[in-house]
Write a structure and sequence with these properties.
By secondary structure, the chain is α/β, with parallel strands linked by helices. The chain contains 13 helices and 14 strands.
């Protein structure tokens, strides 16, 4: 049993296994970019400024890219904010584990987490917001400064906090160069925009992307697609909720619907020649859950067998088989449908996450939720999804 803080009692999520958390987020400090920017970019890189009486993240001096919320639902005393309160909480009003290395490590220790995979906030879950900047060099500078700062965080944590590398996906040649640079710094994987063709790039089935797939396969860099990783996918309330709902209801409905936005990149890749051509390349669907995946895969297998058999004739396997060989999904709150999903997908293709410190994260009641969900699974399956799959994928000792 851990120590009590502000009304919650911290204890290991699962007593018998040190967990690898496959999806967490970092609340970027306000000086992340300015602290490392060369003089010519000091006033242009992302920073928090006041615009029309509100503080927000801007780039290139005045282009808004995010509000100043830390996107953390955890208050300094350990209380979790419910509803939309987190939108009004900047980095000065949330728990230090949201943005401080030592505080994050201490919280990981309390919950029995050995390593955490980290994703961004400010630049977008697919690094898509920097596309709003016309200056190509400034765009790449924003990417590289983030990666440099996060690499230093990884070193500070003794390789327990593992940020995924941003890539300038709007320039495939620059993308390849940044992946190579990141690997040399010790990166374990990359963050990718899910639908770059929405922004004028070729779609993933086109041969233009082959240098990108090749470098990721050669350097064993998993390609991580987080939910909301393109401009078209991050409209949380968008067209799904009725416009008469209140903001909190819109966010809840949009937040549930956004998981299924992953099927767009996933389905297209599964029926392309990419998995066939690059059999050792790994893809991760992050923060999307896993229970909906079996239906999608079964539907793809059936639909193509009935209506496009000639398309599958040049591939050696069915879409579901490629998934079981090269694709991963991450779960956190699922319970009743978890075991059937694992049975269908394979125990080696599922990883556990907490989504800390975002609003839907498993905090502070992680232990009961996870125990109830996996207690009926075989012990070796529990270890796979809590630790071993992520350890192998992200090369964690």
């Amino acid at each position: 049993m851990g120590r009590s803080k502000g009304g919650y009692v911290a204890e290991p999520i699962f007593a018998d296994v040190e967990i690898i958390d496959s999806d967490t987020h970092w609340s970027e400090p306000h000086d992340l970019w300015t602290s490392l920017a060369p003089a010519k970019y000091k006033d242009l890189v992302p920073q928090v400024k006041e615009r029309n009486g509100k503080r927000m993240w801007v780039v290139n001096g005045d282009i808004p890219i995010a509000g100043d919320s830390a996107v953390s639902a955890i208050l300094p005393d350990g209380e979790k904010m419910l509803g939309l309160r987190f939108l009004r909480a900047d980095i000065e009003r949330v728990h230090a584990a949201s943005y401080d290395c030592q505080a994050r490590l201490e919280m990981m220790d309390e919950f029995g987490i050995s390593h955490g995979i980290v994703y961004p906030n400010v630049g977008g879950f697919g690094n898509q917001r920097f596309l709003r900047v016309e200056d190509q060099q400034l765009r790449i500078a924003c990417v590289q400064i983030y990666n440099d700062w996060m690499n230093d965080l990884q070193r500070q944590s003794n390789d327990r906090i593992l940020p995924m590398t941003l890539v300038p996906w709007w320039d495939i040649e620059a993308c390849v160069a940044e992946i190579r640079r990141a690997k040399e710094m010790g990166s374990r994987g990359i963050v990718m925009c899910s639908n770059p063709h929405d922004s004028g790039m070729p779609n993933f089935a086109q041969p233009d992307w082959r240098p990108f797939w090749e470098i990721c396969e050669d350097l064993e860099m998993p390609i991580n697609f987080h939910i909301g990783a393109s401009e078209g996918d991050i409209d949380w309330s968008g067209a799904v909720p009725y416009n008469t709902w209140t903001g909190d209801v819109k966010l809840s409905l949009g937040g549930a619907a956004i998981f299924l936005g992953q099927l767009r990149w996933l389905a297209n890749l599964l029926i392309s020649d990419v998995p066939e051509r690059y059999p050792n390349l790994k893809f991760v669907s992050v923060e999307s859950g896993v229970s909906w995946l079996p239906f999608l895969l079964e539907a793809l297998d059936y639909q193509f067998g009935e209506t496009a058999p000639e398309h599958l004739s040049h591939l050696s396997m069915m879409p579901s088989d490629y998934f079981r060989r090269q694709f991963y999904g991450c779960f956190w709150f699922e319970s009743a449908l978890l075991k059937p999903a694992i049975d269908f997908l394979g125990a080696s293709q599922v990883m556990f996450e907490t989504d800390f410190p975002h609003p839907t994260c498993l905090y502070p009641d992680s232990r009961k939720r996870v125990s109830d969900a996996i207690s009926h699974l075989d012990v070796d399956v529990q270890k796979k999804i809590l630790r071993d799959n992520a350890a192998e994928l992200y090369q964690i000792e």
